[in-house]
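Q: Got a minute? One more chain.
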Amino acid sequence: MKKDIQQERQWAVERFYSGEPPHSICVSLDHSRSWLYKWADRSISDDPLWYQDKSRRPLKPGQYTATEAEELVKSVRLRLYNDDLFHGAQAIQWELDEMGVPYVPSLRTINRILSRQDLTHRRTGRYQPKGRRYPILPAAQPNQIHQADFVGPCYLKGPIRFYSLNLVDLCTGRCGVEPLFSRSGQDVINGFWSLWKRMGMPSQLQVDNEMSFYGSPTHPRGMGPLIRLCLHNNIHLWFIPVKEPWRNGVVEKFNDHYEKKFLRKVVIGSESDLVQASHDFEYRHNSQYRYSKLGGKTPLAVMESMSKKKCIFHDKSWPLSIH
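A: Always. Here it is, folded:
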């Protein structure tokens, strides 16, 4: 069949140059005039096989990833994997940005590279639910429910010991990171004040049973500063059951993200630099990190897309000191 088509092209060109009218050639062969002129022009070229089909592959593919970029993505992924850090597409993009790479591939491009290089396997299998059901507080609007937890003690050069008070808004995925240098009652409420000043006050707050949240060693049966602070501002405070950290799973997962993306990678030598770096990490997470549960959007993008924002914040009535 292919040889018949090629022979037909040669016959048509021979008849054309022998003086036969193009109309009669096209009618007899059931082709258009543009088809005849196309092959007539090709026959003039120096190619002896002008009657054969040419490859339609583009000379320069538009969506082609350079070999250097592909090798860089591969090496960064392997290094993160060997260091027991997050090694997905977002973690690789984050790392390339910190390395100062002039062109950072998109998440879609990085995922295609990982798929081509067969680097999509997990260190562990997919999460399997334990089958234990427990109550889940509603989180349909921003600042409806926050989860908070401490990470630490952590140490800087010096050494300087600190704790990180981490907070996550369950609806939008926004995070708050506030370093504290002690877990005294006043420092705890000052930490929540700084977080809520940036994020807004929640309707409900969920924490674990850490002493700094519910009381003090001196008065273990009395209401701690955080409890009184929440009561004063009409915030419902929830304590998860003892030895069941999975009930605070969202902030616990963020703590892992904080340790691998911040604590293990950022070198800080002073308290002021720690505060600035923590706030920079917070903003970078909220503006760049994309969650599948949010449809691939960032927390700030989800926040902006919601027309109704429940953000309870009363600056004038805030008690800066609770005794």
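A: Residues 310-323 have pLDDT under 50 and may be disordered.
Q: Perfect, thanks.
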